[in-house]
Amino acid sequence: MTDILPSSPAASVVNAPRRYRFATEVVTVDNSDDPHNAASVPIYQTATFKQKGATASGEYDYSRSGNPTRTHVENHLAKIMGAERALVVTSGMGALDVITRLVRSGEEIIAGDDLYGGTNRLLSFLAKSQNVKTHHIDTTQSDSILPFLSDKTRLVLLESPTNPLIKITDIPTISKYVHERCPNALVVVDNTMMSPYLQRPLELGADISYHSGTKYLSGHHDLMAGVIGAKDASVGEELYYVINATGCGLGPFDSWLLLRGVKTLAVRMDKQQASCIRIADYLEALGFKVHFPGLLSHPQYELHKSMSSGPGAVLSFETGDTGISERIVEGTKLWSISVSFGCVNSLISMPCRMSHASIPAHIRAERSLPEDLIRLCVGIEDVEDLLEDLEQALNIAGALPTPTK
Ligand SMILES: *Cc1c(COP(=O)(O)O)cnc(C)c1O
């Protein structure tokens, strides 16, 4: 289609900077171009757009190249991410796939050593099939990147906090090292755990920030989406080219659901985070080893605080015994046993048995990923109910120092 007609720009336009505080901006969607003054951005459920004449093409021609519902959610997300350009695709992994297509055979990626499982899988695939090597480093030690930076470095892929070990990466320092030494390299941050409400990597020195929109941005576990934000319009244009060429742009209905979901990001996150802080304190007081950047005991508490406006709503803790952990997970009634996070409902999981099971056991051991680790992803239920349910599960599992009846 776009081979015949000039390709539809369908670009998210460069945005006006944020004018209000985040919670206001996130619920205020610009729909001023709507011909009927619709209060909610409509779903343009169409594959094609008619043209005025044989040579005159309108703004949109074909939904792979651009669709008004997708453009609206992209413009809105660019605003809240502080990006020059935002792009939405069919999943978080789809977002990383688009970004890694900027890397040519023979170039290199530097990434953390506690990455999301799917990210590891994609990087292994690139190493095998595209001759793109990834060096894994301990991103809690910023200097550990220095020996690997070279003129081959194309992407530096960071997460902070990591998941499930909740390790913190110094995004400004690593970005500075990369930009000073490798002008051709891009610093890319997977910001899924924090959401743009709590942390905006582009303001911290990164060139690209991406999210699994499946998590906090949409917030209800009812769609899959990936979101990419570029600081530089020309990088945004290169990414858009890949999306149009490969056809992974988010469909109109899912774009609409994402736009609907993201409006409540700030209220959801405030509630989820406040409850998570209560639960982290509760578990720590019982003597468990709790991984959560909101606890003063977290070794990188200050660093996390300097980059973000809150600790988020995901924590993990160790019980010291895999059997006990299994009984806790299975003993909860309100917490669903599920992978993923960012939903309004609370979730519990054992990463080594679930989300991270695809990482071979010896590598899990190398990365000191404890087999007994339990991850909690706190939702918006009443925190007293969440605590009571957790307590009865700890009790049944024999994990409480002084069991209650
Ligand atoms: C879920 C997740 C992804 C992948 O996103 P999908 O939407 O599942 O493809 C990437 N990074 C992190 C940190 C995630 O939690």
Automatic annotation (TrEMBL):
Its EC number is 4.4.1.13. Pathway: Amino-acid biosynthesis; L-methionine biosynthesis via de novo pathway; L-homocysteine from L-cystathionine: step 1/1. GO terms for molecular function: cysteine-S-conjugate beta-lyase activity; pyridoxal phosphate binding. Its cofactor is pyridoxal 5'-phosphate. It comes from the Eukaryota. It catalyses: an S-substituted L-cysteine + H2O = a thiol + pyruvate + NH4(+); L,L-cystathionine + H2O = L-homocysteine + pyruvate + NH4(+). The modification N6-(pyridoxal phosphate)lysine is found at K215. One of its GO terms (cellular component) is cytoplasm. Keywords: Amino-acid biosynthesis, Lyase, Methionine biosynthesis, Pyridoxal phosphate. Pfam families: Cys_Met_Meta_PP. GO terms for biological process: 'de novo' L-methionine biosynthetic process; transsulfuration. Belongs to the trans-sulfuration enzymes family. This is Cystathionine beta-lyase. It comes from Parasitella parasitica.
